[in-house]
Amino acid sequence: MPHTPLLDRIREPADLRNLSAEQLKQVAVELRAETIDAVSVTGGHLGASLGVVELTVAVHAVFETPHDRLIWDVGHQAYPHKILTGRRERIRTLRQGGGLSGFTRRSESEYDPFGAAHSSTSISAGLGMAVARELKGEERHVIAVIGDGAMSAGMAYEAMNNAGASRANLIVVLNDNDMSIAPPVGAMSAYLSRLISSRPFLSIRELMAKMARRFPRPLERAARRADEFARGLLTGGTLFEELGFYYVGPIDGHDMDHLMPVLRNLRDTDHQGPILLHVVTQKGKGYAPAEQSADKYHGVAKFNVVTGEQVKAPPGPPSYTKVFAKALIAEAAADDRIVAVTAAMPSGTGLDAFGKAYPKRSFDVGIAEQHAVTFAAGMATEGMKPFCAIYSTFLQRAYDQVVHDVALQNLPVRFALDRAGLVGADGATHAGSFDIAYLGCLPNMVLMAAADELELMHMVATQAVLDSGPSALRYPRGEGLGLALPERGTPLAIGRGRVLREGTSVAILSYGARLGECLTAAEDLGTRGLSCTVADARFAKPLDVELVERLAREHAVLITVEEGSVGGFGSLVMQHLAWTGLLETGLKLRPMVLPDRYIDHNSPVKQYDEAGLNAPQIVAAALAAMGEANARPARAG
Ligand SMILES: Cc1ncc(C[n+]2csc(CCOP(=O)(O)OP(=O)(O)O)c2C)c(N)n1
Ligand SMILES: CC(=O)[C@@H](O)[C@H](O)COP(=O)(O)O
Ligand SMILES: [Mg+2]
C-alpha cells in the first residue's frame, strides 16, 4: 500500500476544503498512487482515472459536493472520485461481486448524483438537475465532466443545444485527453486540437466579460455579443459559444495552480448561462506504463505496479471477438462489398484487425451508435454489405435507427452483437440482456445466436450471403471452447436448428451460448433416469417451427434456454406453440430466461448462477416439470 499520510486524513471532500494549495497538490500525488495501487489488484479502467486526479481534487475542493452535483460522464474515470468520497476502504472491491461498481452509481453514494457507464449522458442529466434547481428555488452548482470521446456522441449536442437556449447555469468540464478507447476520430476531435493550439487571448475576453457584467441586460447582451465577436476575431470563436456556452480555456488539467483559481472563478461568477471549461489532460498521466501504452491502459487486468506488466490469464482459446474478426476478414476477402462499421470500439469488436486488412472498408464513426446504424443503412441502399459491429448493450442507443432506418426498409444491414448476455465485471450497465427481445419483435429481422466459435464462423458466413434483409448475430464476451476452426465459415440454412442429442422425456432447446450448460444438464438428467433431447435452435427468427413442434409433440417437458430477458427466444417459441394448440396437450413448457431484475457485476459464472441459467438450475427445472407431468393424467393424443 502506498504511503498516503495526507490522503489518510480525507474522509470526505469537505476535508479538502481547509487544505492549502500545496497540501492539495500533495493529496493529488497520494491519490494517484492509491489509484494505481488499487487498480493493480482489481483491474479496471486505470487510464481515464489517472487523467482526472488533479481535476477530481480541485472540483471537490472548490465545490460543495454532494450539495453541488458532480456528474462523471461514462463514470469509468471515477475511481479517484470514489476514493475521495468515502469509498477508499472498499476501492479494492472494485468490479467484484458484492463490491463497488466500476462506474458511478446512485445507490452507491450520495456523491454519485447520476449513474453512468453508457457515454454522453452527463450534460443532459446535469441540465435536468439545473432546471430542477430553478424550479425548486434552490441554490447549487451542477458540474458535468465529459471526455472528448463522449463529446463525439449526438446526445451531447442535443444537451448543449438545449442548455445553450435555456441559459441554465451549468458547468460542463470538457476533459480533453485526445483519446477515446482508441485515438479519437471525427471532425470534433480535429476541432478540439485546433482550439487547443489556437490558445485564446483570455485577458481581452476577461475584460469584455467584466464589461458585459456591468451593463444592464440589453446592453449586457450587446457587450457579450461584442465579447464573442472579439473572440471570433481573436480566436475564431468556438463551437461551444455558438451553442450558447461561455467557453473558458483550454487550461492545463493537471496544474492545480490553474485549476483552482479558474474553478473558483466559475463558482463565484455571476455569469448567467452555461459555461464550458476546456481542460487538457493526459490519459494515464503519472504512470509510465500507462502513458507509454497505445491505449493508455484504458482497461487493464491486474498488474505489477513496478513493471506495469499485466497479469494475463494463461492463453486460452481465441475469444469470440477474435473469431468474429477472422470470419469477417475471410468473407471480405471473397466479397469486396463487405464493409464494417464500429462506434469507437475497434479493439472491443475486433474491427481493428479487420481495419488492418481492409482499411478502406472499415469505418470508426466515434461514439455514435445511432449514426453508425443509419450510415450502414445508407451503404446498404447502394448494394454494399455493411457489418455493423456494436455491443448488444450499446445498440440499445440506436434502437429507432434499427427499426425505422433498417428493419422497416428491409435493408440488409448485418448486426454483429458482441457481449451478448451477461458480461462480468462491467455489470448491469453493459449486460447484453435485451437484444433478442428488442430485435425479435421487429418484422424482417433474421436473428441468430452462436452456441460456440465454430457456429459463429458459420453465422458470419450466413450473414455475408443473406442479402434479403437485416440480420443480427449475437455472441458472448470471452473465450470460445477451443474448437478447430476452418479458414472460412459455411453458410447455414436460414431458420433451421440442429439436434445434438436425442431423447424421449425432456427436450432442452438452447438458443446461443448456454448450449454447453444444456448438454451438461442432459447428462445429469440421464443419470437420474430422464432421457433428454438437446437441440440448438441457431435462429430465433425465423424459428425452426418443424423442430419446435416435433420437440413439443414428442416430449413431456420442453425447456428453452437463452442468455436473454423475457420477451426473447422463449417468448417466440411460446407464441408459436400457443397458436398450434400444442400448449393444450399437457406439455410442460419452461422458458428459462434472465430474471426480471438487473444482475450486478461479478464473474460470469456467478452471474449466471444468480440468473438461474447454469446446468444445475436447468436440471432442477426439468425435474420439477417432469414431476408435474407425471402427476397429471396421461396426455391426450
Ligand atoms: C454509448 C457508449 N458507447 C461506447 C462506450 C464504450 N466506451 C467507454 S469509455 C469510451 C471512450 C470514452 O472516451 P472519453 O469520453 O474521451 O473518455 P476518456 O476515456 O478519454 O477519459 C468508450 C467508447 C460507452 N461507454 N458508451
Ligand atoms: C467503459 C466502457 O464502456 C468500455 O471500456 C467497456 O468497459 C469495454 O468492455 P469490454 O471490456 O467488454 O470490451
Ligand atoms: Mg478522452
Automatic annotation (TrEMBL):
All copies of domain Transketolase-like pyrimidine-binding, residue ranges: 318-483
InterPro entries: Dxylulose-5-P_synthase, THDP-binding, Transketo_C/PFOR_II, Transketolase-like_Pyr-bd, Transketolase_BS, Transketolase_C, Transketolase_CS
Reaction equations catalysed: D-glyceraldehyde 3-phosphate + pyruvate + H(+) = 1-deoxy-D-xylulose 5-phosphate + CO2
Binding locations of Mg(2+): D148, N177
Organism listed in the record: Plastoroseomonas hellenica
Protein name: 1-deoxy-D-xylulose-5-phosphate synthase
Subunit structure: Homodimer.
Cofactor mode of binding and number, as noted: Binds 1 thiamine pyrophosphate per subunit. Binds 1 Mg(2+) ion per subunit.
HAMAP family: DXP_synth
Keyword Transferase: yes
Requisite cofactors: thiamine diphosphate; Mg(2+)
One function term, GO molecular function aspect: 1-deoxy-D-xylulose-5-phosphate synthase activity
UniProt-annotated binding residues for thiamine diphosphate: H76, A117, H118, S119, G149, A150, N177, Y287, E369
Primary enzyme class: transferase
Keyword annotations of the record: Isoprene biosynthesis, Magnesium, Metal-binding, Thiamine biosynthesis, Thiamine pyrophosphate, Transferase
Listed EC numbers: 2.2.1.7
Membership in a protein family: Belongs to the transketolase family. DXPS subfamily.
Its job: Catalyzes the acyloin condensation reaction between C atoms 2 and 3 of pyruvate and glyceraldehyde 3-phosphate to yield 1-deoxy-D-xylulose-5-phosphate (DXP).
Pathway(s) the chain acts in: Metabolic intermediate biosynthesis; 1-deoxy-D-xylulose 5-phosphate biosynthesis; 1-deoxy-D-xylulose 5-phosphate from D-glyceraldehyde 3-phosphate and pyruvate: step 1/1
NCBIfam families (alphabetical): dxs, PRK05444.2-2
Domain of life: Bacteria
